[in-house]
Structure formats: structure tokens, C-alpha cells
Write a structure and sequence with these properties.
Elements (H helix, E strand, L loop, with lengths): L8 E3 L2 E4 L1 H9 L3 E4 L3 H6 E3 L4 E3 L5 H4 L9 E4 L6 H10 L5 E4 L2 H7 L4 E3 L5 E2 L7 E2 L7
Parallel strand pairs: 2-7, 3-5, 3-6, 6-7
Antiparallel strand pairs: 1-2, 4-8, 9-10
């Protein structure tokens, strides 16, 4: 194996990184592309050197703004959207792409660096009525 081998496992041409592997490459200049919605980012954010927030539903229309010369590590809550996002970006000519395997859930379980906002955490007796404590009345 050569020294330039990216860590992780390759599945259908897409590199998947474990949380520790992702943190290492992020500390070496990769950029985390957080595909989660604003509400989820508010509750719990990745604490890494450089993050671009781009909800997965707006990825295709904003992809041109992303750096093609640096490794993009795609992350979401559980890994549901990253493979599709990687496929979209590859089709748009991005070749430096990896996915965070397991998303924020795996990152959190691995005790990787986080920023949490206690006021944004969900509260309530039932998941169907849970709301963020943050005031969203600003118009």
C-alpha cells in the first residue's frame, strides 16, 4: 500500500470513514460538509476545523460553491443521505469525496468533538410533540 492511501472502506466507489478516521483527515485539511437541517445542526454540531453547512435537499443547486480541490467529508444524522449526496457530487465532477460512516450518531457514540446547544435540544413527553426550546418567532 502506498503512503497516500486514504483510510476507510470503499463501497461502490465511495469512501466511507469511521469517525476517528474522519477526524484525522479533517485535522489535515479536509472539509466537513454537514448535510443536516438547520434544526439538527443547532442541537448538536460537529466540532472540527472547517465545516460547510448545506442541507441535503439544497445540495445540487449549491454544489458549484463547494471546493473541488479539497477532500469533502459528507455527514448527516445517521448516514442516510451521504451516499446519494456523494453520487450527486461525483456526477458534478467532484472526485475528492468521502462519507462519514454512521453520521452524527456514530460520531457522538465515538465521543468525537461536539458543540451542543442545551436550549436547542428537544424536550417533551412524547416524540410527536417535541419542540426545540429556541424561539423561532423572529420574522
Amino acid at each position: 500500500m502506498s503512503g497516500s492511501h486514504t483510510p476507510g472502506m470503499i463501497i461502490q466507489g465511495i469512501c466511507f470513514l469511521a469517525p476517528q478516521e474522519a477526524l484525522e483527515v479533517l485535522q489535515q485539511g479536509a472539509v466537513l460538509l454537514d448535510l443536516r437541517s438547520d434544526e439538527l445542526v443547532e442541537m448538536k454540531a460537529f466540532s472540527v476545523p472547517e465545516i460547510i453547512y448545506l442541507p441535503h435537499i439544497t445540495l445540487a443547486e449549491h454544489a458549484a460553491d463547494l471546493p473541488k480541490d479539497r477532500l469533502l467529508i459528507l455527514a448527516d444524522s445517521s448516514g442516510v443521505y451521504t451516499k446519494g449526496a456523494a453520487t450527486t457530487l461525483k456526477a458534478l465532477g467532484f472526485d475528492k469525496i468521502a462519507c462519514l460512516n454512521g453520521g452524527m450518531i456514530a460520531w457522538d457514540q465515538a465521543n468525537m468533538p461536539l458543540v451542543t446547544d442545551p436550549d436547542a435540544l428537544l424536550h417533551g413527553d412524547c416524540a410527536c410533540v417535541m419542540r426545540s426550546k429556541k424561539d423561532r418567532s423572529h420574522s
